[in-house]
Write a sequence for this structure.
């Protein structure tokens, strides 16, 4: 990945003049699902073929946002009268609250967070409203695995509209080495104006994005993750920015927040993040180790070919998510299931 292109997409560097380089930039933005975000910045200034492409990106984004608006309404209706007010997470929250990170963002599903004591009733009400476990996970093993070890129900897909809701009761798996204080997130969530839904406060939106990127995954969509973190940090007031590390410590999210700020400061050149890191150094906040820093930088710069970096981040993500004994047993089971499906497909 060309990091300089991220600056262009965010409007912090000029569009390249060469036609071929512009075409490569558009191809990159489309492949990394940030074409709509690029269009919100450059749509008015672009001309010719580039303008057509960016308008197409906005059309696709507009469809996603209309889908989200409708599905939020269906979600509210499904839970009406139950007293359950779920907290929207990730893309749904950004779009619903008008956050900068939601402008031009593609949205494929809805992530919500409910209390553990609300989980059973939420599942029941969504089932009555037409959502059911997706076919890929509707089997005894996956249902057992999700309920015993994971931080969410298996994905729920609507029988008619085919839209997906991910219902979380926690922000990280039960087996995660990092223990996030989920209730502290929920306590500070605020009701979205005009909706029976909540969203995390701006400072927690940033912290959760850092947790999702660096404690619950292998940084699969680096371009979108960096833009998201940059925009979310910008949306935090200057006064509250100074509170980020204190809030991260209280939530148990110091490591992912430190890593996120390091990526923003050293790879994206975000001055706000750099200032926070310098202040944090006085508090002896630990950052990512050298190997992880190498892997992150390699994957950002060469996402198609950085095989070693991808492997390091893959192993790291699974190491953080569950104990080795459980991980090996789970991966072996998944491997033989895929092998069985392959053999059956070849035999047909």
């Amino acid at each position: 990945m060309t990091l300089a292109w991220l600056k262009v997409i965010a409007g912090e560097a000029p569009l390249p003049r060469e036609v071929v380089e512009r075409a490569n930039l558009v191809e990159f933005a489309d492949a990394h699902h940030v074409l709509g975000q690029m269009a919100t910045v450059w749509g008015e200034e672009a001309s010719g073929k580039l303008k057509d492409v960016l308008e197409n990106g906005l059309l696709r984004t507009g469809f996603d946002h209309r889908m989200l608006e409708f599905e939020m309404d269906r979600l509210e209706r499904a839970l009406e009268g139950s007293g359950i007010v779920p907290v929207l997470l990730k893309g749904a929250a950004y779009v619903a609250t008008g956050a900068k990170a939601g402008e031009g963002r593609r949205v494929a599903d809805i992530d919500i967070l409910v209390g553990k004591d609300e989980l059973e009733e939420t599942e029941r009400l969504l089932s009555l409203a037409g959502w059911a476990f997706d076919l890929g996970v509707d089997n005894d093993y996956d249902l057992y695995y999700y309920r015993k070890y994971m931080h969410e129900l298996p994905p729920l897909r609507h029988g008619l509209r085919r839209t997906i809701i991910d219902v979380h009761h926690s922000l990280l798996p039960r087996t995660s080495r990092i223990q996030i204080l989920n209730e502290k997130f929920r306590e500070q969530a605020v009701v979205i104006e005009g909706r029976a839904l909540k969203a995390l406060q701006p400072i927690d939106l940033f912290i959760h994005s850092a947790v999702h990127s660096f404690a619950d995954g292998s940084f699969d969509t680096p371009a979108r993750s960096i833009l998201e973190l940059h925009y979310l940090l910008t949306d935090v007031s200057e006064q509250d920015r100074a509170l980020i590390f204190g809030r991260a410590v209280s939530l148990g999210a110091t490591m992912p927040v430190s890593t996120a700020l390091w990526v923003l400061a050293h790879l994206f050149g975000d001055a706000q993040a750099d200032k926070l890191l310098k202040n944090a150094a006085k508090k002896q906040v630990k950052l990512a180790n050298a190997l992880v820093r190498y892997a992150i930088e390699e994957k950002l710069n060469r996402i198609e070919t950085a095989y070693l970096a991808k492997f390091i981040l893959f192993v790291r993500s699974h190491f953080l998510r569950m104990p080795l004994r459980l991980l090996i047993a789970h991966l072996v089971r998944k491997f033989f299931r895929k092998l069985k499906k392959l053999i059956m497909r070849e035999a047909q």
Observations:
- The two ends are 40 Å apart (CA to CA).
- The longest strand covers residues 164-168.
- The chain has one domain: 3-340.
- The chain has a mean pLDDT of 87.
